[in-house]
Amino acid sequence: MQIVGNTLEHQWIPFTPNKHFKADPRLFVRAEGVYLVNHHGGKVLDASSGLFCSNAGHGRREITEAVARQVQEMDFVPPFQYGHPGSFELARRVAELTPEGLNYIFFVNSGSEAVETALKAALAYHRARGEAQRVRFVGRERGYHGVNFGGMSVGGMVKNRESFGTGLPGVIHMRHTHIPENRFQRGEGEHGADLADDLQRAVDLCGGDTIAACIVEPIAGSTGILVPPKGYLKRLREICDRHGILLVFDEVICGFGRTGKAFAAHSFDVTPDILTMAKGITNGAVPMGAVAFRDRIYQAVIDATPAEGVIEFFHGYTYSGHPVACAAGLATLDIYKNEGLFERAARLSKPFLDRVFSLKDLAIVTDIRGYGMLGAVDLAPSGKPGQRGYQTLIQLFEAGVLTRVTADTVIVAPPLIAEESHLDQMTEALRKVLTRH
Ligand SMILES: Cc1ncc(COP(=O)(O)O)c(C=O)c1O
């Protein structure tokens, strides 16, 4: 594709400095395996699985063929009052992967929609049980739960909030878990489990029976791979149980093998009541998200409407369980299973984290974190916050490596099919670029 004149003018690009990007775009035209090809024909190593989506690598024939077959056979079915077998089969397959007791799956189109669905279902559940006074949510600083109003409100990233009003009423934020005592800690930090007591403080302040749900990412992804301190998630679980609060794990990044198991809930051995997912569910090939619910949540909402033929949950999207997304999802789950990719991620984690942590000696590196196939390197800011991070993203791209950058933190999350040679390429590029600063 030739980029000429004002070809790029008309798109308002998401989460990107538009003017700068349009003056010097980073466009891709092809993708296969762990590589993307940019519009100059250069090969770029995908060290962030796109945006934590393409866990099985790009251009997987099994997925593209399933998608092509489905779109030819039946492109669309209304998901309200009608259906198609693929979505029921995918729900069954997803429920096989989710932690025990979370067997009901609601389909959406993105991580943001998964979060909105989780929050609304939490309210509907409490109301169905005669606890309509539970209307508060507890989120966490440095949490990211997408960009819609509910997710923005429970999220904790100032830039994502400050231009957009006050958000949902009645939201309380716990402190984040990125504390200096855990610097350069690989895996879970030794310090900070007591930060979970912020949930108890919210209970003490507002009354436990006013809180509908507490939502956290088991590992906060978008704010720089903040791995939970040892015991932190268990403590959240205990406090939720004591006060009838639903615990929501937002696993939009953590899910589908990223932590070395199907979900982070398995890795940390803590079972939430609601689990949101997206991205890896279709390997990024078709937009899709989903929410898994504990059986009793589904049952309570359904049973609260005894009259036959009456809708129980007034919620859903035109593209919920879209046939093409379901075909992609089923083919993706087959790949994960047949190739043992979650187990592969667990094996690859050590060599991956060895390499990420090998950057510790660099002068501008102020912290490194990692778990499973997620790693983050904090850089000392130079100039305005985020400036060095942005320069690094561009320099790494020029060095042939695609990464995700948040403020002055470089995040790496290679596809689970990566070979050690790819990890070497990623680390060498990082070292070269970071040494130049
Ligand atoms: C934890 C988490 N929740 C929600 C979202 C939003 O997902 P989407 O961009 O698909 O709406 C993301 C996106 O990265 C995420 O990391």
SSE order: HEEEHHHEHEHHEHEHEHEEHHHEEHEEEH
The percentage helix is: 25-40%
Count the E strands: 15
Strand order, sheet with most strands: 4-10-9-8-7-5-6
Low-confidence stretches: none
Whole-angstrom Rg:
22 Å
* Percentage of residues in DSSP E strands: 15-25%
CATH superfamily of the largest domain: Type I PLP-dependent aspartate aminotransferase-like (Major domain)
Shape: globular
Architecture (CATH level 2) name of the largest domain? 3-Layer(aba) Sandwich
| Small molecules bound | pyridoxal-5'-phosphate
Q: With helices defined by DSSP (H or I, 4 residues minimum), what is the helix count? A: 15
CATH class of the largest domain: Alpha Beta
Number of domains: 2
Question: Main β-sheet, in a few words?
Answer: 7 strands, mixed
